[in-house]
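Working notes for the structural subgroup meeting. M.R. asked for a predicted model of this chain before we commit to crystallization trials. I am recording the input and output together here so anyone reviewing the notebook later can reproduce the run.

Input as submitted:
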Amino acid sequence: MDNKILLKAIFDGLSNVPQKPNLEVLYCSKSEGEQRLASVEWENIGVEQTNDFLFKDGKINQNNCGAKWNTGTKLFREELEPQIIQFFSRYSFTDESIDAINFDLSALINYKSLQREFDFESIFYDQMFELYTSGYIPVGYEGDYPNGTFYVMNPQSEPSEE
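Returned structure, recorded in C-alpha coordinate form:
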Protein backbone atom coordinates (compact mmCIF):
# COMPACT_ATOMS: atom_id res chain seq x y z
CA MET A 1 0.00 0.00 0.00
CA ASP A 2 1.24 3.50 -0.81
CA ASN A 3 2.81 5.41 2.09
CA LYS A 4 0.81 8.58 1.41
CA ILE A 5 -2.47 6.63 1.43
CA LEU A 6 -1.49 5.02 4.74
CA LEU A 7 -0.63 8.38 6.29
CA LYS A 8 -3.88 9.90 5.00
CA ALA A 9 -5.87 7.06 6.63
CA ILE A 10 -4.09 7.75 9.93
CA PHE A 11 -4.59 11.53 9.72
CA ASP A 12 -8.26 11.05 8.80
CA GLY A 13 -8.77 8.78 11.81
CA LEU A 14 -7.11 11.24 14.16
CA SER A 15 -8.96 14.25 12.71
CA ASN A 16 -12.44 12.79 13.12
CA VAL A 17 -14.51 11.83 16.14
CA PRO A 18 -12.79 8.74 17.58
CA GLN A 19 -14.47 5.38 17.00
CA LYS A 20 -14.40 2.58 19.55
CA PRO A 21 -11.56 0.26 18.53
CA ASN A 22 -12.16 -3.48 18.15
CA LEU A 23 -9.74 -4.26 20.97
CA GLU A 24 -9.56 -3.55 24.67
CA VAL A 25 -7.71 -0.33 25.44
CA LEU A 26 -6.93 1.86 28.41
CA TYR A 27 -7.70 5.52 27.75
CA CYS A 28 -5.50 8.31 29.07
CA SER A 29 -5.43 12.08 28.80
CA LYS A 30 -3.18 13.85 26.36
CA SER A 31 -0.83 14.97 29.14
CA GLU A 32 -0.54 11.42 30.52
CA GLY A 33 -0.19 10.10 26.97
CA GLU A 34 2.73 12.39 26.28
CA GLN A 35 4.45 11.11 29.43
CA ARG A 36 3.90 7.53 28.31
CA LEU A 37 5.22 8.28 24.80
CA ALA A 38 8.47 9.47 26.37
CA SER A 39 9.00 6.22 28.28
CA VAL A 40 11.80 3.82 27.44
CA GLU A 41 9.37 0.93 27.97
CA TRP A 42 7.13 2.09 25.09
CA GLU A 43 10.11 2.64 22.80
CA ASN A 44 11.48 -0.81 23.62
CA ILE A 45 8.18 -2.54 22.78
CA GLY A 46 8.17 -0.93 19.33
CA VAL A 47 11.79 -1.86 18.65
CA GLU A 48 11.23 -5.45 19.82
CA GLN A 49 8.14 -5.85 17.65
CA THR A 50 9.90 -4.41 14.58
CA ASN A 51 12.85 -6.74 15.10
CA ASP A 52 10.46 -9.66 15.52
CA PHE A 53 8.87 -9.40 12.09
CA LEU A 54 12.01 -8.21 10.26
CA PHE A 55 14.34 -10.89 11.56
CA LYS A 56 11.82 -13.73 11.93
CA ASP A 57 12.72 -16.54 9.54
CA GLY A 58 15.53 -14.40 8.10
CA LYS A 59 13.11 -12.17 6.17
CA ILE A 60 15.50 -9.23 6.40
CA ASN A 61 17.90 -11.11 4.12
CA GLN A 62 15.32 -12.23 1.55
CA ASN A 63 14.65 -10.46 -1.75
CA ASN A 64 16.34 -7.22 -0.72
CA CYS A 65 13.98 -6.79 2.23
CA GLY A 66 16.59 -4.94 4.28
CA ALA A 67 17.41 -2.59 1.41
CA LYS A 68 13.71 -1.92 0.75
CA TRP A 69 13.12 -1.29 4.46
CA ASN A 70 15.99 1.21 4.53
CA THR A 71 14.74 2.89 1.34
CA GLY A 72 11.26 3.12 2.85
CA THR A 73 12.68 4.71 5.98
CA LYS A 74 14.60 7.26 3.90
CA LEU A 75 11.52 8.12 1.83
CA PHE A 76 9.49 8.40 5.03
CA ARG A 77 11.94 10.95 6.44
CA GLU A 78 11.99 12.95 3.20
CA GLU A 79 8.31 12.84 2.25
CA LEU A 80 6.16 12.10 5.28
CA GLU A 81 8.05 13.33 8.34
CA PRO A 82 7.44 17.04 7.57
CA GLN A 83 3.69 16.35 7.26
CA ILE A 84 3.69 14.45 10.55
CA ILE A 85 5.50 17.25 12.37
CA GLN A 86 3.03 19.80 10.97
CA PHE A 87 -0.02 17.66 11.78
CA PHE A 88 0.91 16.96 15.41
CA SER A 89 2.16 20.50 16.01
CA ARG A 90 -1.44 21.64 15.42
CA TYR A 91 -2.37 19.73 18.56
CA SER A 92 0.41 21.39 20.61
CA PHE A 93 2.39 18.22 21.18
CA THR A 94 5.88 18.58 22.60
CA ASP A 95 8.81 18.00 20.25
CA GLU A 96 9.67 14.87 22.23
CA SER A 97 6.16 13.47 21.73
CA ILE A 98 6.22 14.28 18.02
CA ASP A 99 9.58 12.49 17.72
CA ALA A 100 8.15 9.41 19.47
CA ILE A 101 5.02 9.37 17.29
CA ASN A 102 7.17 9.90 14.21
CA PHE A 103 9.34 6.90 15.19
CA ASP A 104 6.24 4.73 15.68
CA LEU A 105 4.66 5.86 12.41
CA SER A 106 7.88 5.27 10.48
CA ALA A 107 7.93 1.60 11.52
CA LEU A 108 4.15 1.23 11.14
CA ILE A 109 3.98 2.72 7.64
CA ASN A 110 7.06 0.82 6.49
CA TYR A 111 5.54 -2.40 7.84
CA LYS A 112 2.17 -1.82 6.15
CA SER A 113 3.72 -0.83 2.82
CA LEU A 114 5.94 -3.93 2.66
CA GLN A 115 3.59 -6.35 4.44
CA ARG A 116 2.25 -8.18 1.39
CA GLU A 117 5.51 -8.30 -0.53
CA PHE A 118 7.44 -9.91 2.32
CA ASP A 119 4.59 -11.70 4.08
CA PHE A 120 5.21 -9.74 7.27
CA GLU A 121 3.00 -10.64 10.17
CA SER A 122 2.74 -8.44 13.23
CA ILE A 123 -0.41 -8.36 15.31
CA PHE A 124 1.20 -5.47 17.20
CA TYR A 125 1.50 -3.22 14.14
CA ASP A 126 -1.87 -4.30 12.75
CA GLN A 127 -3.42 -3.30 16.09
CA MET A 128 -1.52 -0.01 16.09
CA PHE A 129 -2.86 0.77 12.61
CA GLU A 130 -6.39 0.02 13.79
CA LEU A 131 -5.94 2.31 16.79
CA TYR A 132 -4.60 5.21 14.72
CA THR A 133 -7.36 4.89 12.11
CA SER A 134 -9.94 4.72 14.93
CA GLY A 135 -8.75 8.11 16.17
CA TYR A 136 -6.32 7.14 18.92
CA ILE A 137 -2.57 7.33 19.36
CA PRO A 138 -1.05 4.24 21.01
CA VAL A 139 1.17 5.54 23.80
CA GLY A 140 2.01 2.57 26.00
CA TYR A 141 1.22 -0.95 27.01
CA GLU A 142 0.02 -2.36 30.32
CA GLY A 143 1.45 -5.81 30.93
CA ASP A 144 3.92 -7.89 28.98
CA TYR A 145 3.18 -7.89 25.26
CA PRO A 146 1.06 -9.63 23.98
CA ASN A 147 -0.63 -10.35 27.32
CA GLY A 148 -1.83 -6.89 28.14
CA THR A 149 -3.59 -3.80 26.90
CA PHE A 150 -2.63 -0.73 24.86
CA TYR A 151 -2.81 2.70 26.44
CA VAL A 152 -4.25 5.19 23.96
CA MET A 153 -4.96 8.89 23.84
CA ASN A 154 -7.05 11.07 21.60
CA PRO A 155 -4.98 14.01 20.36
CA GLN A 156 -8.05 16.20 20.81
CA SER A 157 -8.68 15.11 24.43
CA GLU A 158 -7.41 18.40 25.80
CA PRO A 159 -7.73 21.76 24.08
CA SER A 160 -4.72 22.83 22.07
CA GLU A 161 -3.28 26.26 22.58
CA GLU A 162 -3.63 28.15 19.32
